[in-house]
UniProtKB/TrEMBL annotation:
<feature type="coiled-coil region">
    <location>
        <begin position="66"/>
        <end position="100"/>
    </location>
</feature>
<feature type="compositionally biased region" description="Low complexity">
    <location>
        <begin position="108"/>
        <end position="125"/>
    </location>
</feature>
<keyword id="KW-0175">Coiled coil</keyword>
<feature type="region of interest" description="Disordered">
    <location>
        <begin position="106"/>
        <end position="133"/>
    </location>
</feature>
<dbReference type="Pfam" id="PF14645">
    <property type="entry name" value="Chibby"/>
</dbReference>
<protein>
    <submittedName>
        <fullName>Protein chibby-like 1</fullName>
    </submittedName>
</protein>
<dbReference type="InterPro" id="IPR028118">
    <property type="entry name" value="Chibby_fam"/>
</dbReference>
Length: 133
């Protein structure tokens, strides 16, 4: 047994797999699959007749009545967003038309007042001319 021997010899570190979760989260699974040439299929779990898949950070039912209900909910949410956008657009158009109508009403009232003042001034001028004759 040598007196000054090296008793500590480090073990070799195994090669680490590429961590694709960061790339997937940052750029999306489509980008990761394209750039890294890997197949990133969603994680699926089947418990009896019930099957769920993990996509975009959520467990989504893939089969059965729950899956159909989930798909229907997604469709209804999309339709709701579309209707809300249409509603907002119609409200904006309504506000613009209301502003335009208010402006035209104010202009018409001003024009009417000017016409009345002109008519009064013309009638007073006619009276003064008649009085002078």
């Amino acid at each position: 047994m040598p007196l000054f021997s090296n008793k500590f010899t480090p073990k070799t570190i195994p090669v680490r797999r590429n961590d694709t979760s960061v790339i997937r989260n940052e750029f999306g699974s489509d980008y990761a699959a394209k750039e890294l040439s890997i197949d990133l299929s969603p994680l699926k779990i089947k418990l009896g007749d019930f099957e769920v898949s993990f996509e975009e950070g959520q467990w989504i039912p893939a089969s059965g009545r729950a899956g159909a209900a989930h798909k229907e909910n997604l469709r209804l949410k999309k339709e709701l967003e579309q209707l809300e956008e249409e509603n907002n657009m119609l409200r904006l158009k309504f506000e613009i038309l209301l502003d335009m109508m208010t402006d035209k009403t104010v202009e018409a009232e001003q024009q009417q007042q000017e016409d009345m003042q002109r008519a009064q001034s013309l009638s007073s001028l006619k009276k003064t001319k008649k009085q002078k004759w």
